[in-house]
């Protein structure tokens, strides 16, 4: 079956904040529209008090950029806009400029499924200033949400410790687009399937599901409902057993399971959706084992997240499969990642790149200037540190020092020649042309699992994770400090 890749094939150029268009117009008016710039998209804190973050959403960004254009309906809408004075907001010449605009940026990005950390660029955009500016809002809209949900899913699947995790949050998700993006990001983060059939069609995610309480209530008795479902789906029988009484529900499932066995079929599982999940799962396991259904799985749901899952594991609950909905697809305990998009360099009239820094009263809001990239170092197969470095400093010394961008007392020395390393940003577009081969979603999911496996468990623990060291290469740290001091007139 052919999987649909371009979810949004029409123009989405107006999916932006109005101030992006007013800035674009002002760049054009001032003659700066084609001046080259570099912007970085990054976040400042790991979500959910996690020790890591999982990058997701790049595939949507690729679709957006490939289809970036202002169509005639967009231009007609912009042309009709007026100021309070009644004058047109935009000159007709600017509308014509937008009509002829062709995407021509270079984009480098961290691949989806990569483990990433605060302050490191997830996406780097280089190109005409006006185009770079117009990409800010849609990129943040895409990356913020999918990265957030992929991280939540990864935390949940880590706590499941090898158990199957199903995502079924469609009915509680934030609208149609939110549901589709959440299903995709959940799969990237490690979930095994989704209940969202459209996500299955669009992205090739395995779909799963059996029946709801309403199925049981539509029959005169619970066992009659189970028998009818077994007749319809003899190869997909997971019975929801808590409609009336959980223990009796398991007993009825066992009765129908025996009838299935007589037909050469199997009772795949029972699902518990309410009550004391630790107690009832253990009771269900005991009843199933005594009846000879040792391979029948116990499925649990009911507003679960990684914390409840961890607690149930510690209580030795007999749960084999976890159904996660609301708290995954809505990123329930942290509704936004907070990624930002900041200018890092601007080419002057003589063709020289000038690093740019934003100064703030809050040190965490001071960006990292210059045309930079990220290198990850490994020792004995495990990731040990990430270094943000200027791409002009390709010739690394025998020993380099990385410095925490907000605490110069936190430093680490690295000997690059004695360590495995990987540069994280890879080319996606060159001069507006896609040069990246897009992986299948299964490959991205496998990348997530493989990436997480290369980090020490201390960075992945649920509570108070050990902070993974990320720092600026020493010359970049000093460049940033000098620029900040100069901006504050301290030099």
From TrEMBL:
Modification comment: Transiently phosphorylated on a His residue during the reaction cycle. Phosphorylation strongly increases the affinity for substrates and increases the rate of nicotinate D-ribonucleotide production. Dephosphorylation regenerates the low-affinity form of the enzyme, leading to product release.
Domain Nicotinate phosphoribosyltransferase C-terminal: 373-479
Keyword annotations: Glycosyltransferase, Ligase, Phosphoprotein, Pyridine nucleotide biosynthesis, Transferase
Pfam families listed in its UniProt record: NAPRTase, NAPRTase_C, NAPRTase_N
SUPFAM superfamilies: Nicotinate/Quinolinate PRTase C-terminal domain-like, Nicotinate/Quinolinate PRTase N-terminal domain-like
Gene3D superfamilies: Aldolase class I, nicotinate phosphoribosyltransferase
Protein name: Nicotinate phosphoribosyltransferase
């Amino acid at each position: 079956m052919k999987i649909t890749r371009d979810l949004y094939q029409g123009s989405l150029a107006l999916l932006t904040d109005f101030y992006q268009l007013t800035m674009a117009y002002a760049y054009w008016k001032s003659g700066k529209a084609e001046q080259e710039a570099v912007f970085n998209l990054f976040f400042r804190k790991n979500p959910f008090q996690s020790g890591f973050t999982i990058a997701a959403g790049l595939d949507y960004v690729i679709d957006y950029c490939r289809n970036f254009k202002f169509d005639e309906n967009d231009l007609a809408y912009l042309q009709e806009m007026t100021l309070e004075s009644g004058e047109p907001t935009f000159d007709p010449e600017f509308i014509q400029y937008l009509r002829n605009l062709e995407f021509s940026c270079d984009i480098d990005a961290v691949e989806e499924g990569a483990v990433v950390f605060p302050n490191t660029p997830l996406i780097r955009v280089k190109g005409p200033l006006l185009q770079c500016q117009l990409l800010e809002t849609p990129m943040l809209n895409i990356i913020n949400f999918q990265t957030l949900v992929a991280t939540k899913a990864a935390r949940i699947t880590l706590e499941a410790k090898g158990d199957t995790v199903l995502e079924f949050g469609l009915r509680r998700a934030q609208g149609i687009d939110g549901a589709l993006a959440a299903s995709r990001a959940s799969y990237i983060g490690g979930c095994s399937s989704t209940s969202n059939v459209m996500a299955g069609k669009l992205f090739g995610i395995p779909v799963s599901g059996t029946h709801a309480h309403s199925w049981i209530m539509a029959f005169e008795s619970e066992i009659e409902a189970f028998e009818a479902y077994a007749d319809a789906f003899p190869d997909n029988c997971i019975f929801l057993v808590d409609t009336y009484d959980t223990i009796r529900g398991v007993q009825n499932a066992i009765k129908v399971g025996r009838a299935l066995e007589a037909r050469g079929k199997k009772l795949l599982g029972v699902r518990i959706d309410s009550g004391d999940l630790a107690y009832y799962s253990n009771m269900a396991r005991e009843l199933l084992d005594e009846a000879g259904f040792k391979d029948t799985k116990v499925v649990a749901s009911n507003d679960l997240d990684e914390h409840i899952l961890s607690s149930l594991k510690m209580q030795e609950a007999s749960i084999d499969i976890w159904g996660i909905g609301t708290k995954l697809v809505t990123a329930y305990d942290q509704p936004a990642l907070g990624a930002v998009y900041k200018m890092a360099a601007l080419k002057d009239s003589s063709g020289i790149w000038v690093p740019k820094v934003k100064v703030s009263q809050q040190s965490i809001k001071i960006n990292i200037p210059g045309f930079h990239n990220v290198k990850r170092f490994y020792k004995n197969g495990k990731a040990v540190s990430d270094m943000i470095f200027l791409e002009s400093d390709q010739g690394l010394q025998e020993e380099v020092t990385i410095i925490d961008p907000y605490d110069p007392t936190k430093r680490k020395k690295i000997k690059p020649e004695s360590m495995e390393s990987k540069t994280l940003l890879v080319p996606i577009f060159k001069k507006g042309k896609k040069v990246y081969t897009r992986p299948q979603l299964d490959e991205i999911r496998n990348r997530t699992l493989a990436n997480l496996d290369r980090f020490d468990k201390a960075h992945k623990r649920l509570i108070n994770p050990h902070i993974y060291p990320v720092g600026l290469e020493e010359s970049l740290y000093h460049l940033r400090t000098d620029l900040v001091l100069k901006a504050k007139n301290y030099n």
